[in-house]
Amino acid sequence: MRRAQEKKASPRALHEASRRTGPFRAINCAAIPAPLVESELFGHRKGAFTGANRENPGLFLATNHGTLLLDEVGDMPLEAQAKLLRVLETREVVAIGAHQAEAIDVRIIGATHHELRALVEAGRFRADLYARLNGFRIDVPPLRDRIEDLPTLVTHLLAREGVKNVLTFGFVYALLLHHWPFNVRELVSVLNRAVPVAKGKPLDVQHLPEELQQRAAGKLQTARPTQAAGRQKRPDAAALERLIREEKGNVAGVARVLKRDRAGASLVERRGPRARAVPQLSGTRYKRRHEAPHLARRSDLRCVRGADADAHAGRAGDDGA
């Protein structure tokens, strides 16, 4: 499973959709020094070791009846893996320095940018723990392989920050042309740059980094490096706009001409009849004839909340940093 910017999003959504009454908590197993991982997870008693000046209940007890995300679980030390396995099997936790186990009820979600099976074969991850964690697996591909989700992701990220700028067609189109080698973190960085540059005005191409501006203008090769040989390159902005007008906004018609699927030819999700056409265009601004679920559900085309995907016990999106 590869790392993604929003790895906490899907586990948190799973928690909020469940009937669990406890909190959602997360720990990055790679960011904590190996000697402290057990203390953070299982807790310790005061005086249990040098520097233990106060009692720590540990994340398992603090998350009782809730959901605990073990981020980068593949980097957990082997000794801690053995204790984690015991906790999963017995549903009891023993703090460092304690003599009595305490019962817990915690849902565990693991996320890692490693392929855990390869770590098992290399002797760096316990096979029995892998079997316990691999009960339900979600594979989240990198952003470049789910580019049709980008408009929804953009509106979600902007709405999360309270940004209400209108999105122009040119802005979204330029984002769609980029192949996002650094995944969602790169997208977040681009948006963080564009919003202050726009100064409250509609987000447009000129607010993007120069590379994205040039690609949108057709000055750079628009095909992705991973595209199969023989696949057609994307048309430039003017050609796509002309094609949409010629096809009267019909996504299927645009897709047939481009020899692409509907998702790759439009900004509209495949959500049934409401997503069968794209807006007519005037310049680089949307002049809406039909709903554009990816971008808005209001006439002013302001940002709405979308949904992001992130990682849970499987392969997640590309490393973003």
UniProtKB/TrEMBL annotation:
GO molecular-function terms, A-Z: ATP binding
Sequence segments annotated as region (Disordered): 217-236
Gene3D superfamilies (alphabetical): 1.10.8.60, P-loop containing nucleotide triphosphate hydrolases
Sigma-54 factor interaction domain residues: 1-196
Highest rank taxon of the organism: Bacteria
One Pfam family recorded for the sequence: AAA_lid_14
Listed GO biological process terms: regulation of DNA-templated transcription
Keywords assigned by UniProt, alphabetized: ATP-binding, Nucleotide-binding
PROSITE patterns: SIGMA54_INTERACT_4
PANTHER family registered for this protein in UniProt: TRANSCRIPTIONAL REGULATORY PROTEIN (PTHR32071)
Protein name as catalogued: Sigma-54 factor interaction domain-containing protein
